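Incident log, entry 3
Record: Multidrug resistance-associated protein 4 (1305 residues)
Problem: checksum mismatch between cached and fresh output.
Input:
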Amino acid sequence: MEPLSKDAKSNPCAKANLFSQIFFCWLNPLFRIGYKRRLEEGDMYRVLPEDGSERLGEELQSYWDCEIQKADKELRKPKLTKAIIKCYWKSYAVLGVFTLVEEVIKVVQPVFLGKLIQYFERYDPANKQELYEAYGYAAGVSLSAIILAIMHHLYFFHVQRAGMKLRVAMCHMIYKKALSLSSTAMGQTTTGQIVNLLSNDVNKFEEVFIFLHFLWVGPLQAAAVIGLLWQEIGPSCIAGMATLLFLMPLQTLFGRLFSSFRTKTSVLTDSRIRIMNEVVSGIRIIKMYAWEKPFSALVSEVRRKEISKIMSSSYLRGLNMASFFAASKIIVFITFTVYVLLGNTMNASRVFVAVSLYNAVRLTVTLFFPAAIEKVSESKVSIRRIKNFLLLHEVVKHSPSVQPEKNEEKTLEVQDLMCYWDQVSKLLSPTPQKSSLLSSILGELPKDKGVMKISGELAYAAQQPWVFPGTIRSNILFGKDIQPQRYERVVKACALKRDLELLPDGDLTVIGDRGATLSGGQKARVSLARAVYQDTDIYLLDDPLSAVDAEVGRHLFEQCVCGLLRNKPRILVTHQLQYLKAADQILVLKEGHMVARGTYTELLQSGLDFTSLLKRDEDEEPTSPGTDAPPGPRSRASRSRTMSQNSVRSHTSSLQSFQDEPVHMVAEETRSEGTIGIRLYLKYFRAGANVLVLITVMLLNLLAQIAFILQDWWLAYWTAEQEKLDNLSSNVTNGVMQHQPNATQELNLDFYLGIYGVATLVFGFMRSLVMFNMLVRAAQNLHNRMFKCILRTPVRFFDVNPIGRVLNRFSKDVGQLDSMLPWTFVDFTQVFLQILGVVAVAASVIPWILIPVLLLLIGFLFLRRYFLQTSRDVKRLEATTRSPVFSHLSSSLQGLWTIRSCKAEERFQKTFDEHQDLHSEACFLFLTTSRWFAVRLDGICAIFVTITAFVCISFILSYLALEAGAVGLALSYAITLMGMFQWGVRQSTEVENMMTSVERVVEYTELENEAAWETQKRPPPDWPSQGLITFDRVNFSYSPDGPVVLKNMKATFRPREKVGIVGRTGAGKSSLISALFRLAEPEGRIYVDSILTSELGLHDLRQKMSIIPQDPVLFTGSMRKNLDPFSQHSDEDLWSALEEVQLKAAVEELPGKMETVLAESGSNFSVGQRQLVCLARAILRRNRILIIDEATANVDPKTDELIQKTIRDKFRDCTVLTIAHRLNTIIDSDRILVLDAGRIHEYDEPYVLLQNQDSMFYQMVKQTGKAEAAFLLQTAKQRPPQIVFLDFVSSYFGRSCSEGVFRGP
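Fresh output:
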């Protein structure tokens, strides 16, 4: 794998001085760049050494390994939590000191404030001593504010970074584990689950680290505050604290509930992502079968359950949040009600000290403490899930590869070997034994008993070719250094030379996810070239010749298997019997047993059943396997030359037409620019609610805020009235004095209790719940729209977008919409309204306060705009650098056996770490830029507090009458504003950053759609009754700007006709099928039974044609769902179809028979069996048109024969189009269509084509070898004449027929 080519800048944080570290000044140059232009990956700073993925992962891995060993000794289950604590407790404990200092200051600040207000209450112009003290207290308030600003952000930066380190380390361990999972373990997990662990579960660590310290700081701070309050207002503080303490257990309960919802949600999310993974991987098949609706229903159902759990946890969050905002009001209300009822009189200093103290403790007790409980309970769930994954069974390497001495022979010895797959995978029919033998040699299949000795290194080419995202060169080199001559020889031997010449960037062309840019044959050749280039001692080749046509197959066999590798031991699994003569030894397997072994001649003489397969080969001379071909005999002299000519030609001719094969380049992941527009917010809100609900939500918010404001205003009013009363008491007679206060107290208390208390509670809670409901609904609807759009977008989208990129939107971005965004949004709304309230109240008491507030606001808005220019780009970079992590994981899981056979685990781990480090660079920048912003905001606020404190003193010195209540309000609000203003602005930027997820999801809800599934024009119910297909001047291209791959094609496939379609790689065979199924819209006209297909809905068209695809796809779910997702057929039909394809016995052996849930992608079935399931699907559909797309390429002759026989019996009344590389599968067709470079080269009966020695078909037959060619000619000769007259005549008289329907021989 090539390294991630990017020279990152060195990280200035490493060399920054103390001042720069505290205020994050080292980021200034980045902000200047970000303000001028869009940030690119090259602008990011290299990750700090201590944050490197490999270093962190290996450190945590060592603790986990120790924990496993210790647990084994103590006979208990290992605990991942212990390993995490041992690894991180020291560095994390130090951060606790920060929290402690910060919380102490929060408690001390109100004490200074109280003393300052007392000075105003007892103001005496003559007392200079008190004035100096007042200056001291003002300085205390200011210093507290400044130190808080600095401490808070240093703490947050370091805890978030600690959380990031743990996340990175965990991802490293998860990937490392994924690389060593055994086949059994792979059956117990899915790609979807592993992606979910990497995208959602590990994020919980970042969240929990932020709040964890508040679990012990909260109670401590509460105790300190109770002490101070007792001094100020005596026993009545207990009433307020009781309310606070009542909230704590309530929130612990919420945390427990939250944890149970989280567990259930995780399982459903896994399941949804797994289905998504399968849908995206198998989208071609889903479209061709017109199965979008059942899959849509499946995902919608899982999503509905997931959303119901998310909704419940959101309501809990809403209650938590509402209790946080309402708590302070309720507490103050209860405290002072009790205080006054106990006969005390109110005064400003007491009220505002109490309010400030409650505010200090409220944040910790009602927000951070419950958040800590919630996050701890979430993390426990995640840790449990990750632990279960890390304890899955690993592949046991039976240290077979003994390094032989220099001249010692490389050998492979197998004796009395017995192996078992696990229960669900025990499905052995003709195909998997050969692959099972190879997997046991590779060590993938654990041996039960017997001996396996291997001396030498192994190389392996898999049956289903695997390529990873990267260049073709990196796929072939696979970590080895390039040796130009050797590389050239390998490319030549694997028939890739011509392909590379035709690709835009040669061997530096980037292959998409799952090799989307290459054809099946090219993937097979790249995969083979990789194995050959490894230059190991022993080669295991699992049927590499099946995916290529006969000519290329012969070239690979002669030039590669028997050429370049001739001096190495090779084990070749093949179904193509023409190559057996060249074998030194043949092994015949049947039902897991070796039934014969020997040379070709020995086996022929043994009289085994096996010889029936070889009968047709016996007259070929062993000297030259496959040179001469039928009719014309050749002289012996020309033979050796022909062989080399064949090889030369197979470089060129086999690939002449390659440029017409579509080359899908991988598109760069889109990244939006500029601000998040108001239209996006509207789309988001409208997705969750209609206009009426939106108006209701706005009203509720206003009402709740008014209720909150009235309470604050009431306190100031109350203390002012009390002061007036106290002053009155000295002047007025005793009788009046007694009556007056009671009147105000009684009158207003009732009013206060009745209106404000209830209104605050009702509106406060309602607005939270309604908003959460609206935003979670928006997430649900946007997800559903995105999924619908993904199903409706043309296939080309999936060819140019890697699977990781699509999954990233469905996992990470939807995860943000589900949980983080609603919480942040509701929080922002409430804080924003509170700020408005605070400013309004303060302005009503002291109008001049508006001047600094306005200046503050302008400063903030400018800073916010400056910050967002950079921050948005950093967030978008964080999203796009995350996709490769997922893509790398899912592609590694697909090629696990290849990676392990080449011992490339370390290299893949290193690449994964590089992807992680790139993502960490973006994450680190995101953390630090947020802190850069926050520290500046808080700094401005601290200056504001300082100015307010000193201005109040100077006001009173300049003889402006200031009520103590007013000063109290102004100062306590300045302090509240300090936290709140910056939190509000920060949350607004958080919302905007998270809206990038909405933006990415919305982008996928607006993808281009293919044609409608149903249109006004519906075909008759029995259509197509004949199965007549006409191509009339059809041109076809996969995209508007792509090359034309079918050119001016005119052809007719008659009713009930069996047509074989052949052509070299890239001739346009599969494109013909794509045009028929309208996977992209063709130009020209295609008629089926005289109905123009372009006028029909896609489902009406696709449901009426059956296809057996080249890559058989099964989906996770029961066998029943795989055969019949619409539940249209009875059990008898299903069993009968399975019986037809000889799978009935295999399915009956399964634990749940037809209801057994298959492994991901049906991996517990062999390729041949999956192909048979696809055949059973076709039988069940009973359509008049059947298309077979190289369906027998990966199956053995016996299965091939079974498929051919079933097709002849079951589809005798159908029009069958068969694309094939194996000519024996189509030689008995009624006619053969030969394609070349997207045009029809020949189209006639097989025997007629073989009479013409210049025909392309004749040349192809000739390539298969003398005996095979003779057999093919004989078969073509014996084929019965076509009986289509009666049918044709009746259809002719039945209705007018298009011209040229019948061009008989």
